[in-house]
């Protein structure tokens, strides 16, 4: 029962959040480094070395964090399944009372309350899933989801990191123009990410896009100011 429930297939609800997390982090991180170094030095090779070092380190780090955090959630869910299974077998009356309390909180009363409770407790699989969702507030994590999260966050971080670098490849002879191009291109992507997030979830499309834009470019401006005030002359 434990393995069957824990390994049920379900939609990758975290796909969008993982992509946004990785792409935004990679983009903002590299943009800040590029702007900071552009303000501090005219050495294009140094700028590229620093940016690609950040890209590699940040991508692996973000992917690893996504893997370990998702794996921890899966272990927490499995532990919850094990505990609830034991309680259903050892103290079924107490667990049934907990089901009844949840339905009471939803407004069920009298015969409807008892009927709803009985429907759940007569089906062991439904009983376990009900307790996991509404008592422990835990959702199943598929066995391959930690690896999927790692790959999505890793790939999206690399993708996001490359975007602010593109103008430096094509306009590297003019660092100021490259920096401006990087800001414009990064800002456009940040706005699109926020806009798309609101489109597939909820919220104001333009407000979400502008929020993502302001947060991302704010970090880039911080990098530029640091490079300008404490960088090499």
Structure keywords:
233 residues, mainly alpha, 10 helices, elongated, disordered N terminus
Q: What string, H for helix and E for strand, traces the elements in order? A: HHHHHHHHHH
Number of self-contained structural domains:
1
Distance between the termini: 67 Å
Number of strands: 0
What is the molecular shape?
A: elongated
Q: Number of DSSP helices?
A: 10
Strand content: under 5%
Task: Please tell me about this protein's structure.
The chain has helices spanning 2-6, 15-40, 44-90, 92-105, 110-121, 124-134, 145-162, 166-171, 175-200, 205-230. It has 233 residues and is mainly alpha-helical. The model is unreliable at 1-12 (pLDDT under 50). Helix 2 packs parallel to helix 10 (205-230). The protein is elongated, with a radius of gyration of 25 Å. 82% of the residues lie in helices and 0% in strands. The protein has one domain. The chain is built from 10 helices and no strands.
Concise account of the structure shown:
It contains 10 helices and no strands. The chain has 233 residues and is an all-alpha fold.
Topology:
Layout lengths: L1 H5 L8 H26 L3 H47 L1 H14 L4 H12 L2 H11 L10 H18 L3 H6 L3 H26 L4 H26 L3
Helix pairs in contact: 2-3, 2-7, 2-9, 2-10, 3-4, 3-6, 3-7, 4-5, 9-10
């Amino acid at each position: 029962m434990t393995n069957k429930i824990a390994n049920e297939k379900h939609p990758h609800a975290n796909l969008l959040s993982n992509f946004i997390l990785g792409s935004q982090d990679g983009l903002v991180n590299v943009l800040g480094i590029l702007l900071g170094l552009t303000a501090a030095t005219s050495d294009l090779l140094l700028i590229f070395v620093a940016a690609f070092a950040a890209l590699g380190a940040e991508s692996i780090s973000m992917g690893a964090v996504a893997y370990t955090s998702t794996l921890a959630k899966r272990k927490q869910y499995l532990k919850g399944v094990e505990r609830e299974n034991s309680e259903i077998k050892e103290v079924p009356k107490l667990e049934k009372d907990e089901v009844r309390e949840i339905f009471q909180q939803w407004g069920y009363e009298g015969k409807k309350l008892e009927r709803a409770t009985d429907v759940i407790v007569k089906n062991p699989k439904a009983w376990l899933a009900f307790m996991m969702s509404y008592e422990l507030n835990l959702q199943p994590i598929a066995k391959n989801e930690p690896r999927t999260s790692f790959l999505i966050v890793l790939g999206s971080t690399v993708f996001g990191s490359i975007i602010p670098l593109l103008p430096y490849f094509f306009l590297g002879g003019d660092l100021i123009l490259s920096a401006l191009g990087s800001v414009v291109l990064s800002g456009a992507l940040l706005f699109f990410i926020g806009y798309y997030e609101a489109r597939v979830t909820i919220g104001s499309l333009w407000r979400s896009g502008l929020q993502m834009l302001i947060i991302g470019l704010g970090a880039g401006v911080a990098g530029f100011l640091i490079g300008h005030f404490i960088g090499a002359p």
